[in-house]
Amino acid sequence: MLYDLDALTLTDNYDNHARGPNFVMEPPPKLEFSNSSGGWLDCSATGIPQPTISWLTADGQLVGDIMGVRRVLLNGTLYLMPFQAPMYRQDIHNTIYRCVASNIVGQIVSRDVQIRAGA
Prior knowledge:
The chain has helices at about 5-15, 90-95, and strands at about 20-25, 30-35, 40, 45-50, 50-55, 70, 80, 95-100, 105-110, 115-119. With about 120 residues, it is mostly beta strands.
C-alpha cells in the first residue's frame, strides 16, 4: 500500500497547528457573596497552546494577589477571600472584573462581571 507522504504531513500539521483561545467556562455576569464566606469566579479556555488565564479590573489593570484579600489561582479562578468588615475595599469587593484567556495566537476577554460583597 502506498501513502501520499505530503498529504499525511499536511494532515499532521493541520491537527497540531496553533489555535486561539476559546472559552470553556466564562464567568457569570454577576457575583454577590458575603464577607464571611468569600467568593470565587471560575474561568477556563481551550486552545493550542493551552491559554493562560488572567483577570483585569474595570480600568484594564492586571489583577494580582493581595495577601489575605484576593488571589488568582493557578487554574484561573479568581478567589475573593472571606474578610472582616473593616477590610472592605470598594475597588476589590464592589467592582467589575474581566477574565482574559491568551496564547501565542491571540486573546479573548470575557463579559464584565459585576461583583458585590455584603454582610
